[in-house]
Amino acid sequence: MNSAFQAALKATLPPQSLLIEAEALRPYECDGLSAYRQVPLAVCLPETLEQAQAVLRICLEHQVPVVARGAGTGLSGGALPLADGVVLSLARFNRILGIDADNRLARVQPGVRNLAISEAVAAYGLYYAPDPSSQIACSIGGNVAENSGGVHCLKYGLTVHNLLALKVLTMDGELLEIGAQSLDSPGYDLLALMTGSEGLLGVVVEVTVKLLVKPERAQVLLAAFASVETAGAAVAAIIGAGILPAGLEMMDNLSIRAAEDFVHAGYPVDAAAILLCELDGANAEVSEQIMAVREVLFSAGATEVRTAQDEAQRMKFWAGRKGAFPAVGRISPDYYCMDGTIPRQHLAQVLRRIGELSEQYGLRVANVFHAGDGNLHPLILFDANQPGEMKKAEDFGTDILRLCVEVGGTVTGEHGIGVEKLDAACSQFTAAELAQFHAIKAAFDPAGLLNPGKAVPTLHRCAEMGRMHIQGGALPFPELPRF
Amino acid sequence: MNSAFQAALKATLPPQSLLIEAEALRPYECDGLSAYRQVPLAVCLPETLEQAQAVLRICLEHQVPVVARGAGTGLSGGALPLADGVVLSLARFNRILGIDADNRLARVQPGVRNLAISEAVAAYGLYYAPDPSSQIACSIGGNVAENSGGVHCLKYGLTVHNLLALKVLTMDGELLEIGAQSLDSPGYDLLALMTGSEGLLGVVVEVTVKLLVKPERAQVLLAAFASVETAGAAVAAIIGAGILPAGLEMMDNLSIRAAEDFVHAGYPVDAAAILLCELDGANAEVSEQIMAVREVLFSAGATEVRTAQDEAQRMKFWAGRKGAFPAVGRISPDYYCMDGTIPRQHLAQVLRRIGELSEQYGLRVANVFHAGDGNLHPLILFDANQPGEMKKAEDFGTDILRLCVEVGGTVTGEHGIGVEKLDAACSQFTAAELAQFHAIKAAFDPAGLLNPGKAVPTLHRCAEMGRMHIQGGALPFPELPRF
After folding, report:
1. Same domain, yes or no, for B303 and B345?
2. Residues B385 and B403 in one domain
């Protein structure tokens, strides 16, 4: 590495905050998407705002790209290092700065774990709603970068809906204070623009989150179905009935069996699909909703509907769902976790098509997902040691994402584009839309040093893929289906 | 007007879509903020997307500024014309394009009135939640431009929380499709960025809104208080108790009496302040909440709590609130409607301070506002025919907005910055933040032709006001109050 650059970093950071030895860099070579690996030039772990600002200014001066990193649990390679770049880890920005129970908000540093926020405010009967499966490990800063969701975002929204304010560093080390504690903030909505921007616009150094009051009661129903299509239709029926569950999750037979073998949740292993429907709120309200949902489920063709008999059983029901990914990992050497969203009414149709594709590719698929908001997570099972299977799995995945876009959905629900979905993103946007994205990037980071090559594909890449009519016309898909 | 420019417009638009005669232009000289007036060069009323695109391209070619206009009900002068500019009215984009009851969404053109959406979907038991007081007249396109709120945004959010997708024209006539029918959309969050951007980034030509299921029951409580401070504290107590009313409105004695004389709502005219608290949801849930809220209100010092005995009385209670502005108009030659937000916990303190300022300025203030989300609407009463009173009212207003920012709030809740609050906005942002806003504007509209001079003050203007340390340091206010 350029010695002047290295000297500048050494002069700025305490020794424990600057990693440059190969073995020290190794743990940073990938995030949760381990199929992509790259050792960075260096890893900086600033402990103060001033150090973080200095690192950015030094990188800008030496034109060295910067990849910000939280807990490294991301699933789309958003924190994948660059060979000639620095990883800026926020791991030591890990303090909860303040809790305001009366106004139900907390000010935290980006390295604080998602679950740690809820733990810290539990004493006040409050919690932070977005709950990605990785919530034990993932950091709130990473959640902001990816606009993370979770089981409960159907009712409580994504990360962007649960934020009040951000402090962000631009590439030149400028501190921006975005948002406010109050209802709305004038000026352009930088809070939403920054959320989900995958580290391309700025580095989050402080987050003020909204907290919710723990519901008086939470109850979960488990419904079994003879086909995934019926289960998919039941999801639409529940929402159509005007019920808003706290969570509405689907698992198909392969995932049911894998999860049952793994955590013994008590799932009906012969069911083609199950739905887990969580209802929360005031006691009376939940009781009413349970009755309403049971009725809808049966009339939608459920073969069996169980209500958790106690908190222990409710936890067991969820343990199966939350353990589904590792459970599938036990029945296949490798799996590829997809993430796409579709309008709910197309669930049954899309699941059927995924089944057909599974036949065509000769690869099994386990469907475990946030059915309520149409956020699919098909797990494609394959064996990386079988020549060609990895490629087959990727092609299969691409077909699934194109299918999502075809029915009016998107190529990512909550995992982001990262490096994984740059090609898929080409089928999502027109040239004009991509050009606008790049213009916004340039408005924040003219030198293009923040997480370059992620999240937004170049026009050139998309053109080469022949996925887009560069001459301006819309693609066949992005148009909303007419109704 | 430049003849080549005029000729180009004439060649593009049917005669009824191009207004250039003085008397035809007059109705467009102002929006809801009638203190500011300016007759534009011309008014274009395109009837098709192609015509709208052509108008923008012609204006770009001739470097003529464009001010998009919906129903012209805005309260901050966002649609104020420019002498050398064109007004682009979306009044003829007034069709509802589609209603999808199953997925609870509607696709509408920007000129559709806010209330017309709820009317059109009422047959399905659905409605569109954001309800600005002007909802009979205001257009959904204008709502998007201002990120409008309303009585029910406490529970159901602002416009930005009730949108799924937008079609937007950039200044060069390019069509951008933003958002999707599904949960989340990849790429930067242009949907939120565009919402509330006051016509500076693009022209909205289609809006896909979320629809909600009409609650089974809605009930309103009216609580009387011996002081505005107690009423303010009661608001914090309700929210603190974990209750989320559909609406939580406050009126002080002056507004109570004005409204009572006007609509005979049956308000207690001797009360220093009243709260209107609407609760909606399932029957059982609402009954539970009514009991809970009554308890909180009394223990917070309410002297009287009434529950509307029937739908007719509920409507009367709301009629008084919704008629409060015109009612105040009857007791004063002129009034100046302010709009700022503050963190709820500062309500009592801020109301007290507004009372003191009222004494100092010798101008009466009527407080009518969305207490639940800390969105104040103090109405400053004055007589424009008394020399100096207009200026006094404006200074008073500015002091109120500075007060909002001092306690961690913002200078606008739902009315936008427009031309009215450019100076106030200076006290909200640092130089770095303003520079970032201008960079984003340039990323969409490099020539700066879309609604120039609105919404975001120039660095120069703020520097001249001495409101900001241009040398980067944060202001005393924008910092979140430490807790």
Report:
1. no
2. yes
Q: What angle do CA A470, A453, A440 make, to 5 degrees?
A: 65
Q: Compute the nearest-CA separation of A126 from chain B (Å).
A: 10
CATH code, A175: 3.30.465.10
Within a 10 A sphere around the Cβ of A299, how many other Cβ atoms?
11
Residue B395's domain spans which residues?
Answer: 332-465
Residue A192 to residue B189, Cβ atoms within 8 A: yes
Q: Does B50 contact A at CB distance below 8 Å?
A: no
Partner residues linked to B218 by β-bridges: B280
The per-residue pLDDT for range B154-190, each reduced to its tens digit, is 899 999 999 999 999 999 999 999 987 666 677 899 9
pLDDT in tens, A167-204: 999 999 999 999 876 666 778 999 999 999 999 999 99
| pLDDT band for position A473 (cuts 50, 70, 90) | very low
Interface test with A, best of B183, B206, B238, B249 (most A CBs within 10 A): B183
Q: Would you say A166 and A144 are in contact if contact means Cβ atoms under 8 Å apart?
A: yes
Q: Distance, in angstroms, between A161 CA and closest chain B CA?
A: 8
Cross-chain residue pair A189–B192, CB shorter than 8 Å: yes
Residue of B nearest to A155 (CA): B183
* Residues B208 and B224 placed together within one structural domain of the fold: no
Angle at which helices B324-331 and B253-263 cross, to 10°: 100
Least confidently predicted of A432-436, B148-152, B167-171? B148-152
How many separate domains does chain B show? 4
Q: Any idea what the CATH number is for the domain that residue A23 is in?
A: 3.30.43.10
Which residues of A are less than 8 Å from B411 in CB distance?
A: 186
- In order of A236, A266, B105, the CA distances from A152 in angstroms are 17, 22, 21
Q: From CA B397, how far away is CA B412, in angstroms rounded?
A: 12
Six token digits for residue A53: 């600002």
User: Which one, of B140, B212, B210, B148, lies nearest residue B181 by Cα?
Assistant: B210
Please say whether the beta carbons of A162 and A118 come within 8 A: no
Q: Which two tokens stand for residue B288?
A: 């539970």
* pLDDT (average), residues B40-65: 98
Q: Which H/E stretch holds residue A409?
A: none
Q: Are the CB atoms for B385 and B333 separated by under 8 Å?
A: yes
Q: Does A158 touch chain B (CB under 8 A)?
A: yes
Residue A448, Ramachandran bin (φ over 0: left; ψ between -120 and 50: alpha; else beta): left
The reported pTM is: 0.86
Task: Choose the closest CB to A192 out of B192, B410, B417.
Answer: B192
Mean pLDDT of all residues belonging to chain A? 90
Residue B240 sits at the chain A interface (C-beta within 8 Å) = yes
A193 membership: H or E segment, kind and range: helix A190-194
Q: Which two tokens stand for residue B64?
A: 């003529």
Residues in CB range of B314: below 8 A, 6 or more apart: B218, B219, B220, B308
Do residues B152 and B189 share a domain?
Answer: yes
CA distance B383 to B175: 47
Token couple for A8: 């500048």
Tokens, residue B117:
């959406």
